[in-house]
Amino acid sequence: MKKTIMIILVLAFALSIGVVQAAPERIVSLAPSITENLFALGVGERVVGVTSWCDYPEEARQRTVIGDAINLNIELLLSLEPDLIVGDSTLVQSHLESLEAVGLSTFIIGPSTIAEVERSLIDLGEAVGAKERGEELALAMQTRLEELTKRAQRPERVRVFLEIWNEPLMTVGPGSFMDELIVLAGGENIAGDSPTPWPVFSEELVIERDPEVVILTSFNLEEALSRSAWQVTTAMQNGDVYEVNPDLYSRTTPRLLDALAELIDILDLVGTK
Asked: Which residues contact 23 (CB under 8 A, 6 or more apart)?
């Protein structure tokens, strides 16, 4: 009798473990970076809901849109019957708490460095039953990062201003992955002493610190080039003002290293025109 009870308990425990570890079959993503990483992990076919900003890879555009990453259509989201909702802690924390309150399973990530992006790929992979693929992606990032930083060795650092918005003028500071990209590329972030990762910056301070290169992430090259007060900067005088694809620089995915590679190439060109 005791042996039979023991067998039943062992089977029950095994079944409970199986339930807990079962990979989710219907996933809703609440951020473009998360959507991109889910597809990179090979579970894109299980993604049933995304935000209107989720445009990569192309297949993500075919999923049901449940909001814009800030405002969510909760009724539509619930109609998708998700068994896992993945969100970014910096965007929809309050929504996630509400969803948890009604019994939905959520997973939250919020990497702010390249190392944390690598770690998040493993953690997200584990959450969706693709930990091995997550580990592969993280290792590939590490390997590529080492290769890129070897290319970025330069005798003097290049003064960089990376603009993420123009009205108000916003840039990147310590604690942001964009600041990390500048440093890894061999640049000196002229906003590197800012008190926050995403500071509002003054035009006067940009001119005073005289960037050698200006990077724009808002598709506003024509407007930036027309700023009369900025014409005294080295970047403007040498024509080293570049408009880049913001998705590469702003999304915490393996494509951050595409941004790093591009930034290294840009800094290599500074002063050569």
From this structure: 43, 46, 128, 129, 130
